[in-house]
Amino acid sequence: MSTSAQFDFAPLLPAGLPAPAARWTGLAKYCFVGGNNDPDQVPVDGLLEAVNAVLKREGRNLATYNLAHGPQGYLPLRQFLTEKLKRDAGIACTPDEIMIVSGSLQALDLVNHTLLAKGDTVLIEQETYQGSLNRLTRLGVNAVGIPLDGDGIRIDALAAALADHKRRGITPKYIYTIPTVQNPTGSILPESPRAEMLTLSKEYGVPIFEDDCYADLIWNGERPPAIYAMSKHGGVIHIGSFSKSIAPALRVGFIVAPWEIMSRMLPLKTDAGSGALEQMVLSEYCAPHFATHVPRLTRGLRAKLDTLMEALNEQFGTAAEFEAPKGGIFLWVKLPDNVDTLKLYQAALAAGVSINPGPEWSTNKAHSSSRLRLCFASPSHEQIREGVAVLAEVCRKEFGVPARSSNVEKHG
């Protein structure tokens, strides 16, 4: 069939669709993008054992949607989560207050489709998860960025924004925050600003949407209680994921919420259940191994972060500014103001290095135009060093940054 005779779908497409996808051409040679994790740290042997054990024992249940455990997901996995959340985040909840979802992205969609309509307003951290920003844009929701400091969201700025919206007769639908290992900055919000945020939430009648996807990956293993755990009046929806602690491709996340709002989300989960095999295997593996696997994983990630920071200091010298994150898989880097990271991204990609340009992770494009996010979890130590050297070369060619002597100045 010749191309000219092919059916034309274009006139049938509704307005407002996202731009067409480009064909997949594989990962860059030096890949510093995405929420990918360390391939050497995926517990393959343990997962293999778990697959065999759980399939032999319960495989016949795959004949029933949701393994006959109901639309909120595999009960043993929800039971594991109640214990884990109590131990790690201080959250006291029952399995009935947990829904297993297909990665935290489905959690975002379910919360958004339950609470938001076109034209609504939400308050969100100024630098934040690109997936959250893109979803709000597509829904026609006004995302108001609240500035961050070294600890996370600035509570004074949040209070001012809430007061300002109230004056204008607008009640935001939620406050979205990544308080524990913030994406992209890697900060951890201390307990007292968490308490202040809850006070503001109650005062203004605006719920908190707490995204805790990176909370397992803290270098020292210590974290404040989840905002959900600290709330005395409800009003918090909490989401998390196994993507960063076990493996992103498993696509298993979870929502913790009071039944009153959980019961409104459930009818919107129209996929007849998240992947059951993944839930069974995770439950089987995590119950005995999670507590020993995660510290091993974070030690490996911390070593890669050190390699990345050393490579940046060596190649960029004083031209690259950054705060060491408290955990996670990302480093948020500030380059000199004349560097446009959207342009740097294109030039670097042509040279085999993929980076996340800052404006895609911010409500304030001007503030983040010279910033970039680097994921250090996936590349090897050698790839990190080589990739940063290539990035510096491209940046020098495009923007004159770093000047050749910058690393000498740093040590001079």
Automatic annotation (TrEMBL):
GO BP terms in the entry: alpha-amino acid metabolic process
Gene3D superfamilies cross-referenced by the UniProt entry: Aspartate Aminotransferase, domain 1, Type I PLP-dependent aspartate aminotransferase-like (Major domain)
Keyword presence, Heme: no
CDD domains: AAT_like
Secretion signal span: none
Domain Aminotransferase class I/classII large: residue ranges: 61-390
Keyword entries, A-Z: Aminotransferase, Pyridoxal phosphate, Transferase
Highest taxon of source: Bacteria
Requisite cofactors: pyridoxal 5'-phosphate
MF annotations from Gene Ontology: pyridoxal phosphate binding; transaminase activity
Annotated Pfam families: Aminotran_1_2
Entry keyword annotation includes Translocase: no
Quaternary assembly: Homodimer.
Stated family: Belongs to the class-I pyridoxal-phosphate-dependent aminotransferase family.
Protein name: PLP-dependent aminotransferase family protein
